[in-house]
Amino acid sequence: MREDYDHELALAYIQGRLTQEEKREVFHLLMEDPGFRELMQLELRLAKMLTAVKASPPQTVAARVYFNVTASKSEAFTTDLTKAILAPIFKVSLPKLVSLCQKLR
């Protein structure tokens, strides 16, 4: 129970969702609880890794995809394009994300 609360508190701090009182609690835990410090370091590493994964495509790629999608009037093409784009993204990124989460545990 306490571990879940600490996890949520650390994540909320990183995401900037805490009240002033909760921030004081985080600072107190960081000073007094080595386990919480370790948890916070883990959450910070994970947040940094996930930020790197969320990189946007280069402008040229985004513009080309946008042009191809808007140029098409065919629903079948849109469905095929969705499969062509999403399937490789899921096949590549999801296993990496799962692997990353397992390494952090």
Largest sheet: none
Number of domains: 2
Instruction: Work out the number of β strands.
Output: 0
Q: Characterize the overall form.
A: elongated
Order of helices and strands: HHHHH
Q: What number is the mean pLDDT?
A: 81
Decide which structural class fits the backbone: mainly alpha
- Radius of gyration in whole Å, from Cα? 20 Å
Strand proportion, as a percent range, falls in under 5%
- Unreliable stretches, pLDDT < 50, 5 or more residues? none
Specify the helix fraction band.
over 70%
Distance N terminus to C terminus?
18 Å
**Helical stretch count?**
5
List its traits.
single chain; 105 residues; mainly alpha; 2 domains; elongated
Q: What does the model show?
A:
This protein is an all-alpha fold. The chain folds into 2 domains: about 1-55, no CATH class; about 55-105, no CATH class. Helices cover about 85% and strands about 0% of the residues. The chain has 5 helices and no strands. It has helices spanning about 1-15, 20-30, 35-55, 60-70, 75-105. Helix 1 packs across helix 3. The longest helix has 30 residues, at about 75-105. It is elongated. The relative contact order is 0.08.
